[in-house]
User: Fold these one by one.
Assistant:
Number 1:
Amino acid sequence: MSSPHPAIALPRLIAHRGLSAHAPENTLAAVRAAHEAGCQWVELDVQLLGDGTPVIWHDASVQRCSDGKGRLATLDLATARRLDVGSWFGDAFRGERMATLNDMLDLLDHLTMGVNMELKVERNRSGTELAEVVVPRLLEALSTERLVVSSFDPLALRHARAIADASLLPIGLLTESVPQKWQPHCEALEAFSIHTDWTRLTARRAGEIKAAGYRLLCYTANDPAAFTTRWAWGVDSAISDDPTLFAGISPPPA
């Protein structure tokens, strides 16, 4: 690697959107559940409301994970806070509210957890604006050893790198399938890691990535037995909706 990166001790298992198999995804409740289950890191999504407030949310709309309707880009914070984002998952979570980035960072700091924060850029939204708002807050709130920022959006990642160098901000290149010419993209970003769909990863590509010195993370791994070959290929971490599934088939030591 051309630039130093923080000494990050990535866990073998990372809770996808919090412990999303057992609590409503991307909520404070899901992160608390992940912590209670023994998870050290979570993967979360962040994007902006219409008024510019960064919130922890995956979809472009609120229908799937709340009692409301409409696009996130049209909501202000007061309106978003009125949504029930827990009852869709179960009565035990009724009254859960959408978490702002600040809410979530306070909780992560309190629990001393690490996070892979995805800059989620929906259609007609600005990746540059999202990075400009979110990255400084992440760097202020969390130590660099507990943070990786990833995104599918090239502009968001390039702007994130412009804000902070590789010694301060670990960047993960997020891709559904690792492209043949993946390395120039990583070198341009001074990337720390590559994050890819575990079902699309090949042993050859995994070997190339590891030989070049990058960390390799795979999503969304919910079948521990089927995932066994990926550990053998050198995968560093599996992002799972339910890391507790791996208890019976423990991944090998890193």
Number 2:
Amino acid sequence: MEDDDRIARLVSRALRDDGHVVERAGTGPDGLDAALANDFDLVVLDLMLPGISGVEILDRLVGSRPDQRVFIISALPEIGIRVACLEAGAADFLVKPFAVAEFVARVRTRMRGPAPGPARRSLAVGPICLDFRLHRASVDGRPIELSLREFLLLQHLMERAGQACTRDELLADVWGLLFDPGSNVVDVYVRRLRAKLDAPERVETVRNVGYRFLAE
């Protein structure tokens, strides 16, 4: 599913040359209808489609067919979007522009691997719950407003509850930075989280290391 004809032709040709049978769709509604009406081994999905967004298509496909492999290709580079799509059930995510050889290699890898199971819908640690489908958080059932980056930071900490998380790993996982830019962005976002959770001590400072999420 790709509305850019040049990219669609390039990807289709590469897949056919690799031995695959390809069906193209240039709009969201056409692509979704085709994906729901047929049993495709893999769906290649652009996020910015006319008619229906790729994010909505991903959600509806995974909801209807949890074992459907969906490969996202998108010009949206933000790590938060990539993480959200993978959490929602996408098998892979490749940012445009990309090398065709890498795309074909990744397709081969995804086709060899097992089909995905049902996407994880939520994460609960202590009184805190994250809803991955709606990207919402709650404390004891009470909704709290989080930005995407705050949500990803809280998710990282909750998935490692009780463990010390370094600033470097938080920068890499939440911001996609493989180096410390010399800013205190992690500390700023931790302060914001503490102000929104049920207790500031829920996120504990680990001296000279980083932070730890406490379940109780």
Number 3:
Amino acid sequence: MTPLAALFAILGALLVGAISPGPSFVFVVRTAVAQSRADGLAAAVGMGVGAATFGALALLGLRTLMTEAAGLYIVLKIAGGVYLLYLAYRIWRGARDPVEVARNGTGNGSNLGRSFGLALATQMSNPKIIAVFGAVFAALLPADRPLWLDLALPALIFLQETGWYALVALAFSSSRPRALYLGAKLWIDRFAGAVIGALGIRLILEAR
């Protein structure tokens, strides 16, 4: 796989994972619905910053393992593949679970700094994100990748995550787009589970 193809494959895999609802998704939804659209957008930026940070850390760790601990890197690929299969199963099984979007009546008003900070804390405290990033990178990054790829990925991850969660904030602050998404949630989650499961299988098969 060429570096450019790997770049698009990684961004696509991470986008699929972001689309499937998890703690970050639910936080942005609740912020946009219960506070304001602007607070939801501030939360989206917080999610982007957190994802870019994890992406940079995962890249740094993988580069170190690939050059200094090849055996441990193989173990990481197998463990990452198993985790992705487990995550795919959880996403598929939870596809019918509803997303709670009801207003909680807090009435706290808009506080963009607080919304950004809580979103960043939510993203940084999510235990699955670093495992997902590490596993996706291990599955799709070429072993002899150029330095520009390591530099471009965190910035593009920030733009992608922020853009996706901004769309979530905009959609869930309006009733009609919210209803359309919730109506398609079952198939969105099942598609996400299938893609993540396929990545897990590939990661295990390529570990050698």
Number 4:
Amino acid sequence: MASFKILLVEDDPNLGQILHEYLSVKGYETKLCRDGEEGLRAFKSDPYDLCLFDVMLPKKDGFSMAKEIRKNDSVTPIIFLTAKSMKEDTIEGFKIGGDDYITKPFSMEELLLRIQAILRRTAEKNPQISDQKEFEFGSFHFDYDKQVLSQNGNQTKLTSKESELLRLLCLHINQPLDRSTALKIIWRDDSYFNARSMDVYIAKLRKHLKVDETVQIMTLHGSGFKLITDAQAG
């Protein structure tokens, strides 16, 4: 579980810092935000594998954040943290699309186990949140963390968006990648404008990959794309 990214939104300065340090020590790349508006901006600017939201937050509460996120993202798991123990709050959290709910005070060990269980389940259902970061296909080696595509000793530095898109394609190699799913994961919104932006990045990736004729990105009209390699590229 050591390379997952967690968005933590907690306004209590002591608990927020303790949770941030604990999760970081456990190997999670953790972003700490202090209010709901800051948390939403962070979510929209970067992909995360799991969200940890306090319910009672300044500017925008945890439930309101989750509602806004669920308009365009039904995949990213959300765990709510709260000092309340009312059954109605628990039900509300699940109705919004939360994956779990933990009441303060809680043990760090219990929280960690819940995070691990949810990430394990969602990774099995959604290969796009696998923790794989390096890929070999055709004559290429792709290092997602370094954002470098290598081929026969030549290295190409990719942009963040190129890297995120190529990683999704690699995770679905020789399988269809749904256009809407990719847009929601990378751009957080499958609007027409973002779809056109993705087409530009697909064109850039094709230019990088054209040096190997056994590798290509196919357009699946009306549905998405497929990264194919070896005999399937003929």
